[in-house]
Amino acid sequence: AAAGLSYVGGYVIHTYRSYDNFLHDKYALLPAAIIICVAMVMFVIGLIGCCATFRESRVGLGLFLAIILVIFTAEVAAFVLGFVYREKVKTDVQSTMHSVFEEYNGKNPETNVVDYLQKQLHCCGVKNYTDWTTTQWFNSTGNNSVPLSCCREDMKNCTGSLDLPQEL
């Protein structure tokens, strides 16, 4: 379990590099760091449990049980906090994404990140393609279309036109 959590934490940190323009919050990598720390603690606790079982130590097994109960309590608390603050996280990410979409101009680094995100997640805009109608890029182009990264992969002649939303 510790190895699996270490992998997940490392994967999140590695993947963060692709989306760091959307997550300006300095605490965005905090969950990944916590996951890695938990993995290390789990390894030590597992080692204690194995040694206590191997030696058949009542004190060691009692300590292992106490640690497991503390971990269970922490997991319940983390679940409750995640449930309570899920809307705040959603609102923060959406506002950051809107600001990045607003900086989209077809040339800057934010453009590459937005295009990459839309292609990888097969989406268009923050909620849908109509989010583009309020951006400076949309108003400056004047061609009533969204970026080509919004086009469905199976549509070969897609122009991003809002007149053909089935292609987006």
TrEMBL record:
The source's superkingdom equals Eukaryota
What are the record's GO terms for cellular component?
A: plasma membrane
Looking up Pfam families in the UniProt record yields: Tetraspanin
Show the stretches that span the lipid bilayer. 28-54, 61-85
**Coiled-coil region list:** none
Cross-referenced PANTHER family, in alphabetical order? TETRASPANIN, TETRASPANIN-36
Name of the protein described by the UniProt record: TSN36 protein
| Annotated source species | Turnix velox
Recite the lineage of the species.
Eukaryota, Metazoa, Chordata, Craniata, Vertebrata
Q: Which gene encodes it?
A: Tspan36
